[in-house]
Amino acid sequence: QIVKKDKFKVAENRGTHTVSENANNRTIPEFWEKCHADGTVKRLCELSCDKSRIFGICYSNPHTSESTFEYSVAAAIDDDCEIPDEFTTNEIPSQIWAVFKCAGELPDAIQNLWHRICTEFLPSSDYEMTCEMDIEAYATDNYNYEIWVPVVKK
Description:
The protein has 3 helices and 9 strands, in the order E-E-H-H-E-E-E-E-H-E-E-E. The chain is an alpha+beta fold.
């Protein structure tokens, strides 16, 4: 599904990951486990203006290295929300997103869907990724998720 989403602000906890030897397939689930264990996810949910979901945001790093990127656990917040020092804020710009629904056991379901996006959707669609970020949107009350990929017409 191709949708236009308005800009929104997030509070987030970021970490740097590497794609070398597919390390991110291990380190991102570990990052989520740490964020659940230390209460980060709970605190983000409390700050959130959208209690129905929490995000995993993958940022590209064009100025540092092609093998590293930043990934955050994040929640949408209101503009006037006071953020504790442990979090940073970022504005996700208004843009066109290809939205893919996903269900299943993590992290395999998300990783498998990413494979299908890259090998099936992108090569055959009229769209290409803008590559500045992508978002995993996780429902807080069930095992349904979405991957949001910013796209432009080819």
